[in-house]
Sequence to fold (309 residues):
Amino acid sequence: MTIDGTTVAMTTLEVDLTTITTEESRRDDNVQDALETGESPTATGEFTLRGPTNTIEFGLDAQLVDGVAVVVGSTRILFDDATRIDLSQRPFRVETDEQQLEADALILATGASARWLGIESETRLQNKGVSACATCDGALYRGKPMAVVGGGDTAIEEALFLTRFATEVAVIHRRDELRASKIMQERARKNEKIRFVWDSVVDEVLGDDFVTGVRVRNVKTDETSEIPVEALFIAIGHVPNTELLRGQLDLDDVGYIKVEPGGTRTSVEGVFASGDAMDPVYRQAVTAAGTGCMAAIDAERWLAAQGIE
Fold:
């Protein structure tokens, strides 16, 4: 579940709202461990298991009675993909493969997915030196050579950030010039730790258990070479997970949900958005958590104004 989705779940508990949160089928390891062992960490109040093994229930003042959690205010997390969302009428409808859910208010915390290169070695070595978030993982490879793939503002920003930790940062770009803004390009070119690998694409990420390098191919000469690095950061953009919402509320050209300035209200009354699905700028866990809390509060206030308890 996204960070903002988790924050939404916890915040709605604090205002005693009953919330159902759908979670895509790939599960968080900690949550999966809780499902399999019956042991779970303490969060806001208690964090306990309830009912069938595809459901987790958060609760304030929860107690286990004959193996079932008795909860005051609850959030159920359903491990099931949302396959259809209908915002044309109230209550709003969210369909999964197994059931249809209805909601008086809806918070969209669907996040955004990093664009990947799409090669097998990249997938195999994700979290083993391959990452799409320099600010999240860069410090893990302190004192190591690193590489960034991309040529836009995001790639250059990540490369500059990584120079705090890396011995060298190789920026691999398929063209012979950057797409980043002039000021970002100037900063990168002045940084002694950054070097550019022009007209090149990554054909393979090298390493068995961890990244040891990348094999790049020059798109003009077709020649290949290897660059020894211990971390590879993919910075070729993100795709907001909003495909199910197209045509139902206002999105920008890329697909991010438009919200009112400084808030989480969308163009549809009673629908709110948080996290990376509405934030093309910061895309950080802490900002996602903050907007998740904001969306939960906005939804609670909207429900109260409608006389819905």
Summary: Residues 3-113+238-305 form a domain with the FAD/NAD(P)-binding domain fold (CATH 3.50.50.60). Confidence is low (pLDDT under 50) at residues 25-73. The two ends are 26 Å apart (CA to CA).
